[in-house]
Amino acid sequence: MMILRSEYARPHFRWDELRCRGCNGSCSYSVDGKPLANPTERSLDKLEALRVALGVPLHLNSASRCPLHNARVGGAPLSQHRATSTLQSTAFDIMLTKGIDKWELIRAAEEVGFGGIGVNYRSFVHVDDRGHKARW
Ligand SMILES: [Zn+2]
Ligand SMILES: [Zn+2]
């Protein structure tokens, strides 16, 4: 029997938005010809809560990254974006699109419980659920 998985990981986020952007489904970490997406349930809950709190669409630059892609983009070796079939990611890079105030986004991310927040990027804010507080 074929098991159909919903197109949506959470009401406002499709699985396709969460996949590794680096390998087009061709690397060894891909699953069934699709790039890997393996975020933790808890990080998805927080992402959805953030979306609901802000009330505007959130566009992701990056969520799960396979180790090959993570290395290629210069991600930290133990980046919270890194994922394999058994290692789950907890990080999301949220683009600063029109209608999103950077500091409102950061405040709301803290409120929903994201511990790691990277604010020193021009076009996005990094949030992750590493389990303790980190700022850069
Ligand atoms: Zn890959
Ligand atoms: Zn990030």
UniProtKB/TrEMBL annotation:
Transmembrane segments: none annotated. Residues 12-128 form the Peptidase M15A C-terminal domain. Keywords: Carboxypeptidase, Hydrolase, Protease. Pfam families: Peptidase_M15_3. The keyword RNA-binding does not apply. InterPro entries: Peptidase_M15A_C, Zn_M74/Hedgehog-like. One of its GO terms (molecular function) is carboxypeptidase activity. This is D-Ala-D-Ala carboxypeptidase family metallohydrolase.
